[in-house]
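Hi R.,

As promised, here are both runs. First protein below:
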Amino acid sequence: MHITDHFAANKTTLSFEFFPPKNDEAAEALFGHIQSLEELKPSFVSVTYGAGGGTRERTHNLVVRIKENTELDPVPHLTCVCHSEGDIRGILERYAGANVSNILALGGDPPRDLANYDRKSDAFAHAANLVGFIRKFNDSGVHKDRRGFGIGIAGFPEGHPGTPNRALEMDYFKAKVEAGADYIVTQLFFENRDFYDFRERCELAGIRIPIIAGIMPVTSLGTFKRIPELALGARYPARLIKAIQRAGDDAEAVKRVGIHWATEQCRDLLDNAVRGIHFYTLNHSHATREIYRSLGAKDSVALQR
């Protein structure tokens, strides 16, 4: 389903994100988690793409498997790094052939295993260029849907780590929107006021497309330490840090604190007319299920009431 149809059908979209497995055994375990979340009836699920396209085939295989073997609507990520126009066109053709409806277009991070990688060889320097290319692909009529792919972009409520100047950052961000984006998915955040401020700045800049809030619950001390690496610039409110510290080495207590915090974020976002919530699952289903239960909802339909 095209993303605009999802927004038309739902007051608030609810979606989950997964990353492609590293081997066949992990692939089966992940697909089990994905199937267990199917009963929550998310609007869509997204699948990440490794730096430099390192997980290109696994991403594509997982996307097609979700499309063919579940009722879920997969949204693959696509990045600029290490790609020519021919590479991107070929990937888009494969997804169009599989009747995938939407793409999340990202700048992408330089590959860790390629020292001193020169981005000058990439066909697309910025996500805005990639968005524009996908929009032109849509106009070619290759996709079965006359609208082509719905195009998503990333937003950064706490500021893009590569653009310290927040005023300049919004100019760059608006360029991505004007290149042809249909919706925004934000980087994870732990303080809702950062999201509301970002949403208001978008309005002031004349950005009117839907903004989906990215949420990731802390489920362990390892996750707590790792999140700032996964999302550069992400910061923890002092209240959350204190709660995690009180939990100490009690793994279950840390998980309860993290899930409770994320649940309260979601409750507040829903009360303040958020257009969508996107759960960064880290390929597990427990935390997302607990959040739904704590909000008194058996699935995404009930969560919107």
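And here is the second one, sequence first, then its structure tokens:
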Amino acid sequence: MKAKILNLENKAVSEITLSPEVFALEPRVDIIKLVVDWQRAKARAGTHQTKTVSEVSGTTKKPFKQKGTGNARQGSLRSAQMRGGGVSHGPVTRSHETKLPKKIRKLGLKHALSSKLLEGKLLIVDSLELKQAKTSLLVDILKKFTGKSFFFVGGEELDNNFSLAVKNIPHTVAVPQIGANVYDIIRHDCVLLSTDAVSILEERLK
């Protein structure tokens, strides 16, 4: 399948043949969701934790005598039912990561790319290079493309000037091809791949 190669002025300069195995699949939302859920779970810090009875500071002395006060009997101020006491069955520090086969992860990336191309929101650009590391220069370039958020995927390495220029632009992310992922592809309005990224991704995902 053929696609136009654009420059950063959003003008067609040539054509490229895309692999149908990577860019022309019938999008499967279920597979995309599986990979996105796996990514988001893996990104969680998992540092939430509450204190148990043994970890709460305080005395272990019986707060008041067993009988005669009219209150329910209590053995400690650190018990779960007491104000300021420990928490029963609360969250503990743990990993939220789940397992997902590599084949499914690869398939998810293929379906995400195919979905964006089908929507007309995946563009191929000849290169991601800037003469100067100026944010204003890149902002002017982005005005020529449609969308409120952009995801750039470069080749093996990202151009240093481009990488510096993109840092101060909200809702805009640029990564080398190894950083291409389903979540970022799906959540951004416009995905722009360099020709180097296309050839490497095709080789990686076939």
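A quick note on the second one: Residues 50-90 form one domain. Let me know what you think.

Best,
J.
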